[in-house]
UniProtKB/TrEMBL annotation, chain B:
Name used for this protein in its record: Protein YIPF
A Pfam family the protein falls into: Yip1
Spans traversing the lipid bilayer: 80-99, 111-132, 144-166, 172-194, 206-227
Bilayer disposition of the protein: Multi-pass membrane protein
GO biological process: endoplasmic reticulum to Golgi vesicle-mediated transport
Domain of life: Eukaryota
Organism annotation: Oryzias melastigma
Localization (cell): Golgi apparatus membrane; Membrane
Sequence ranges assigned to domain Yip1 in this UniProt record: 67-220
Family recorded in the similarity comment: Belongs to the YIP1 family.
Keyword check for NAD: no
Keyword Zinc: no
Classification via InterPro entries: Yip1/4-like, Yip1_dom
Amino acid sequence: MASNNDPFEFREFEDEGNLLDTNRDATTINIEDVKRQTKAAGFDPDADDEYPARSDDREELLSGQKKSAPFWTFEYYQKFFDIETHHVKERILGSLLPWPRKNFIQFYLRKNPDVYGPFWICTTLVFAVFISGNISNFMNGKYNPQFRKVTIAATMIFSYAWFVPLALWGFLLWRNNKILNLVSYSFMEIVCVYGYSLSVYIPAVVLCIVPLEWLKWVTMVVAFGLSGSVLVMTFWPALKEDHPRVAMATVSAIVLLDVLLAVVCKMYFFSTPQPSGAPVAPPTAGQLKANTSSS
Amino acid sequence: MAAEEEASRPFAGLSDVSISEDIPVEGDISVPVGPSRTDEEFSTLDEPVKETILRDLRAVGNKFIHVLYPRRSSALLRDWDLWGPLLLCVTLALLLQDGTADSDLEGGPQFAEVFVVVWFGSIIITLNSKLLGGTLSFFQSLCVLGYCILPLTVAMVVCRVVLLAAPGTVSFVVRLVVVTASFGWSTFASTAFLSDSQPANRRALVVYPVFLFYFVIGWMVLTYFPVKNRQP
């Protein structure tokens, strides 16, 4: 026992048993006892795969990386840019070549959704659509750089990439209140999936410069197929627990909006010229249905 | 008496440096600026206007030279200013006018559209690089991005001259070469300044938006076509 006055000298502490002797009122807790008690109560902290949502929560709490800053600070938004170059490359490749086993959100995002990908893919798509439309109009003989089309393209693509995820997220949240669902996606993850699924349209739109009508339709159909399959494979696990009619309706709504985007882009930006030189008006609803039912 | 006081002070060895309380200190507090300038004080309020304007113009011109010959220097970063980008943006927007005020659908970018693309684009790229963890300040990035439009503005002037001289396929090829070269120059100059402030694993993520920005501006320059030359 130290008896000198120096407060900085190290003192050995006695074993817990001795401490208990000196102070009967103190309580000591053993970590093994705690584990045994919680296992008995039914909450096993070590069983991971039974409830993936719970293990994800635990990972989040233990990793300590997701510090919640208030939304009016800069740091709050910085956590959505916490990615590196190879992450972005992997995510783009994953959306270009969808694989049935690899759910985009669970496999590629891994609880780290980013805003960089969706934002810059949308911006690139806006300018790619505008420039390719210009070039294809030029090759058809009529040169008219309608810069106003950039605004229209931007509105279309950004509202598809941000408002549709908002609606879908709200819908999934509402359904989660009605049925117990273990797979839940946050808003940012849904935005991420939609943003990265648009990346397949960029090469498709560049290919539409070639002035062959059948090639344009084939490219758009292939692009729609790839992006649609990414979306469906991602959202099916969240919907399959639901009432079958609701699930089918949601899936077909997702697919339909994707088709709408592809067809509207094609019609508005890559319209075929008529002999008089004026751009052709969009086809009637009947023709539109015939085209989409063949895809 | 004085010796005992000195021994009890903590810094006893420095007694010869301390000022004794007996001798009063006196003097003037005014800081000497040099020769007495009662008539001409060193303030920019009294200098001739030409001096003021030329000083800023010289600073802008100095930065132009740093953009044209990008070397490792901190002139653009340390003494940032936004006069140069404003001058370049207005010049580019004026040169991109082609006089079609009649119909809304025809024609190239309006003045406001060029302005919005340049400034809004620069702000978004700056925000992007700051969110990815860049070390440049907001206005330094804006300054660099704005000044590096200079090669594309020069290309615009060249394109207009070429179009006046010889419209046709030859002029298109010449314009394509000029615009491509100046686009490459702009991107190279701005990444020389911007990429040092990023960690290595995110450099491509910061450079790509800059590439897209100058590509769009280059596209606007390349597709400029005056109305009277356009096909009906």
